[in-house]
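note to self — DONT lose this again. spent like an hour looking for the file last time. sequence + predicted structure for the chain T wanted, 159 res
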Amino acid sequence: MEEKQGIKIGMPIIGGLIAAIVGGAVWAAVAAMTEYEVGLIAILIGALTGYAVVLLSNKRIATVHKVIAVIFALVGIVLGKYLTVVYFASEMFDESFMQLVFDGEIVNAFIETFSDYFGEPMDLLFIGLAIVSAWQIPGRMAKTSMATEASSTDHAPRA
């Protein structure tokens, strides 16, 4: 499963996961500091996951890498929303943030009200832009890398 015809997916999955976690944490931290969700961070999460997937695939990109980037961009956005909810719940109930992150009641409440967090048109717009970023960055970086390799190997002596 790791490698099929020179295409690596194990490390890109790990990279996408790490990027999703970092992006989600940044989203929540910005929301906590500003008391406002900044939708542009969703696009950055998409870009970050796309870049991480490219970086850990040795720039050998296939469609599966784009799918990995998109999936983890969505995971990062959901994680960011969840951590934001947990932060504001910890402030409201004067509880420890870390205790509430793994609290079953908070998790269930988030799942039950999931559509409320993603139902606004602006949310959908930024999620769509994050998906586009996550999908396009691997393809663009692979094309740039292939163009660089082609120009660097074109040093054959001429007659």
